[in-house]
Amino acid sequence: AQHQAIAVQFFLSKKSACFQTIMGSGSSVNSQAKSDTVDESAALQRLAKLVIQGDFGQVRQLAMRRLVKSKDGSGRTVLMLVADTRGTPLQAEKCILYLFELGADPKASDAEGNTAAHLAARRDHVRVLALLPFEAKWLQNERGRTPLMEAVLFGSWKCAKHLLHLLRQERFIDEYRGVSTARQLGRFLKASYTGDMSRNPMRQKFFGMKDQNGQTALELAKFKGYSELASYIEREMRLDVVAIGLINGLTKQEEADREKLECLAREGNVATLLRLVTRANCDLPSRAGHTMLMHLVRSVEIENASVWKQLLNLADPTCADINANTCVHHAAEAGNDSAIVALLNAGAAANATKDNGETPLIAAASNTPIRRAFLTGWFLLAGGADWSLKDSRGCTAYEIALEYDKEDLTDLLQPYQSKKFFDETPNLSWKTRRGAQTDDIWDEDESWSPERAEFPEVQPSTGSQSGATTRQTNWSEEEFYPVTNPQGFCIIINIGKYEELKHKEGGTAIIDPEIREGSAKDVQLVRQVFEELCFIVKVREDLKTQEIDDYLNDVKRSEELNKHGSFVCFLMAHGSHDCIYGADWVPYPIDRIVDKFQSYFCQALSRKPKIFFIQACRTNTLAAARSTIRSDRVPAMGQGQTRSTQEAGESSVTFDAAALAPLRNRDLCPAEGDFLRCFASTPGSVAIRDTHRGSPFVQILCRFLQQHYKVHDVSHIMTKVNNFLQKNSVETGDGKLQSIVTQKVDQLARRVSFDPSRAN
């Protein structure tokens, strides 16, 4: 018994010692865990501070995947800590992008359900908000509030505008992508073309989001007494962004205000612009989503700090048009370096992408005038542009610069081709800026810094208080045809619906009535673009051949032509190798259409550019052009006929005589001069038209005119259109890929500019 008692006592003593050892070890572990938590929280704070300062070198050394995903005691990540500040310099963009590269979650939330977007909206930190993905900007916190609601409650105008303006972009609200059946698609397109679709359901969804109290962003603005912001939201809700890529919904007064500001921006009248611009009217969109600021950065260089500050305190520097062309894209294409610096400092993203994946740096490689491309690329690289990004074709800025023979820009980008964006910080010192034209902005050998470059203080040579100078081109004015205001007529003849074609002998129908589906979208886009270019647009649809002839005769006799500087005509119809077909299937030779406007017959357009865009097949037979049409070859117009009747059913047409007495001496004014004919296809080829989205030729032509009218002449733009279409094949109805080759017949004596700011 004594031995047993000793054994039990020994066992209990050992158990107690073991328990104390275990408890002591646990206390040590807990102490170490607390220490690690404190260290990690301190590291988060340190990393956030470096990002806010824009110190990428230090950020790259400290940031690790585990750290960027971890949270502090309040449940906030480093991205949230950065968002919860009043602002960051432009160098912070690369730091923030690096956080995403390491796995930072833009949708992560803190203890109250707030994401980085919510925190940025409260602080009006538009740089962080602009860099977040679209879907992360519409999440709801525990109170059911979206970042837009937070921006409204805190009176954060910049972030509120950024979020509202996102809903103007077609890629973010394109309900067409949700259409699942052919019947649904048909109803959808019909509603789009006829205007019956008064509201976009995706826009309605975002505007209609409610918090836990059942209040929308608009209702919260009214509740807080922010009447100006509430009115702004109401207007954005009123806008329609339809599937064909247009914005409607401005009132007559708003449209008048927009046109006035646009005109002042294009003219470079900054002093008057500053008197008229307000927070409410500065971002009014055109039908393509273009704002006053976009026109301004394309037209004027402003080198006065106070002017940029005043403008960018009102206007949205992150705003993009319907195709996601941001203000930075527009500035880069124009080579407007002072605008690029000001926009980036105001929170715009240097790496924003368009629908086709094009960044501002890629835009500079393709569209910026050669003499300004190097300096524009330099500013973008210094501002954090990623040289490794590719467009939808898989091309980098360097590859595109090579394609367009921009040697200086190629030399600038070449050293970075073997380097990764996040492994390299460009060494952009004064000595690398060859050909810089703003020598007094920096001192010799001084590296680029936001303090020096934020608002370059260069006194304007004109003595204007605004410090604005109108953009200049590479070419002298003598090389261009004069530009007038208005520029001239833009005639659109679209045969969208064809009659039933009957064979004369048998009297039986061999071609059913046909609609050229998709042509409506072409007409609307051409109208929109040429109205913005200050043309008087006139549309005539579904005319018979005789009616086309009569209408063109009326046009050529118009006295208004004397006041115009140019003439544009779009012909959209079925066609064969040398003609188009009216709605009655009667052929109308293209040469006869063009000849009407020769100087012999139309003195008002003598020595003025006359440009024809023809969207029609050019095959030898109509059947080859349209496989859905079961017909024999339609006979072509005989050569040399002065009055010809071509039979298709019972239709006939009378044409002008081919040889009237000349009105002017041929030696003084060649009749065939000053014409440019642009065909959607080459002789013997079909012209492709998408039944849902319009014809590639017209669509790309209009987009390129919008992008390049300020820096390139029309013939050059047509070359770019041809280059794009040849490199980007389209899928035909049978599922095959086909490249499109356009053709231009250039008989111009000078260059043609569609830039309305050139008007006297």
Your description of this structure?
This protein is an alpha/beta fold. Helices cover 41% and strands 9% of the residues. It has 30 helices and 18 strands. The radius of gyration is 32 Å and the shape is globular. Mean pLDDT is 80; it is low at 175-198, 429-466, 469-475, 504-511 and 622-668. Residues 486-621 form the Caspase family p20 domain. Keywords: ANK repeat, Apoptosis, Hydrolase, Protease. It holds the Pfam family Ank_2. ANK repeats lie at residues 323-355.
Provide keyphrases for this structure:
4 domains; 760 residues; 9% strand; single chain; 18 strands; alpha/beta; Serine Threonine Protein Phosphatase 5, Tetratricopeptide repeat; Pept_C14_p20; two-stranded antiparallel ribbon; 30 helices; six-stranded mixed β-sheet
